[in-house]
Each structure stands twice: as C-alpha cells, then as structure tokens.
Design brief:
It contains no helices and six strands. The protein is mainly beta. Strands 1-2-3-6-5-4 form a six-stranded antiparallel barrel. The chain is globular and about 40 Å long. The mean pLDDT is 85.
Length: 106
C-alpha cells in the first residue's frame, strides 16, 4: 500500500474556538419573491486571518454570501462581516451536523 502525501492547502494558521456565531444568507439579487432569510446559529470550530470553520445543523449553500456576527470572546460585543461559503460537508461524528468553511469578504 502506497502512502498518500496530503498537501496542506491552508495558507493561514488556524486558532481553535468554541463560540456561537449568528449568520443570515443574503438574498440573491436575481431571485424573485420574499428576500428575507432566517437567522441561523453556528458554532465556530476554528478561525484564521481569512475566515472561519463552523458547525451548523443545516448544510450551507456553497458560494452563498452570509452576513455573519462573530462574538468577541464571551462578551455581548459582535463583529459583523460578510463571508462566502467555500465548502460544506456532513460531520462524520455528529449525525445532525454539518461543517463549513467560510471566507471573509470584508
């Protein structure tokens, strides 16, 4: 059996976190109808200079743009920013969980 060399694609160091994050998908400009979307919650697994990795109960749509509120430590203060979903997949160890990588846009 041949050993597979895994190429690390990450360019930034990751910092483990355990903070709740609020997110809302921005409406598609071309979509007709109701442009409101629900506020969702996610748990930040790690954070870097370029984005976050979050765990949610529902899969996030790849390439969608989200309005995200990231808490500062355990305080009531939150940083609001826009992020794009780069990837999402089902959690192996959590049946109702999905993990997603979000890239910071602002």
């Amino acid at each position: 059996m041949r050993a597979v060399n895994k190429i690390e694609r990450r360019q930034e160091e990751r910092f483990p976190q355990n903070l709740e994050m609020k997110l809302r998908e921005l409406p598609d400009i071309e979509a007709a109808g109701d442009s409101r979307s629900a506020i969702l919650s996610g748990r930040i697994q790690n954070i870097s200079q370029r984005g976050v990795c979050i765990v949610t109960t529902d899969p996030q749509k790849v390439s969608s743009v989200l309005r995200c509120e990231i808490p500062i430590c355990e305080s009531q203060l939150r940083v609001t920013t826009l992020m794009r979903v780069r990837w999402t997949r089902k959690q192996d160890f959590m049946p109702e969980g999905f993990i997603s990588g979000l890239e910071t846009l602002l």
